[in-house]
Amino acid sequence: MNQCALRLEGLVQAYGTRRVLDQLDLTIQPGEFVALIGPNGSGKTTLLKCLAGIITPQSGTVLVGGVDMTRDAHGAKARLGFAVDPPLLPPLLTGRQCLELFASVRDLPAIPASTLQLADALAFSHWLDREVHSYSLGTRQKLGILLGLIGEPPLIVLDEPMNGLDPLSAFALKQHLVTLTRDHGTAVLLATHALEVAERFISRAVLLIDGRLVRQWDTATLDAIRHDPDASLEQVMVEALAAHGASREA
Ligand SMILES: Nc1ncnc2c1ncn2[C@@H]1O[C@H](COP(=O)(O)OP(=O)(O)OP(=O)(O)O)[C@@H](O)[C@H]1O
Prior knowledge:
Elements: E1 6-15, E2 18-28, E3 33-37, H1 44-51, E4 59-64, E5 67-68, H2 73-78, E6 80-82, H3 95-105, H4 113-121, H5 137-149, E7 155-159, H6 167-184, E8 187-191, H7 195-198, E9 204-209, E10 212-217, H8 219-227, H9 233-243
Parallel strand pairs: 3-8, 3-9, 6-7, 7-8
Antiparallel strand pairs: 1-2, 1-4, 4-5, 9-10
Adenosine-5'-triphosphate binds at residues 15, 20, 38, 40-46, 249.
């Protein structure tokens, strides 16, 4: 059995004639905290949807914990958590009912204590018994994250999870993710534009341009950037974008 938390090989996805993922390869090991960065429209969300089995790529392989998404989607999805898009939450259920539903899908007898602890850290506890339609955007975002992380799967995939979170909640989430990677060997893949936030706690960054991962910065390089007062991930990414002649989507 393949021990990688995630292995993507030769992923191709196009919308109409536009190729958004172009023979993309990526491997993530247990315990890695990887930031997926790239300009608007570079394909980050499409990539996350492919690896989570929401979109079936036109070609290529997705292995989650060694399980092939095409051959055993149920087994592969059981090994990953994907934060639920806030607009997709059911408006008439309470947060607790949503969590119970997800717990049962994961074959858990009840909402795990770790989820309730994270709810507390995110100041979500007092929303647990209120219906989703009464939530603010940030509160919906928190529930989406709690649902994605329930049961602490070995791979966690997050798309801009800090969007709409207040600073205390964003800090609590970062701490939680760092603890999961460091103490439980959880792998995290985080798509984000918040480079100044990400650079402080990630172990690797990969840059997606025009559907290909064109650059990556490993732990040693990120450490060097952190220790250089004149350097930042933002700056090196801007330079990398210029070097690749990348432009933002019009
Ligand atoms: N369902 C779809 N149908 C057609 N085109 C799509 C669809 N979803 C995404 N696209 C296009 O694919 C490209 C990549 O989109 P994607 O959302 O993956 O980029 P992204 O890197 O996540 O962007 P952002 O940083 O703005 O969130 C964009 O040009 C987008 O317009």
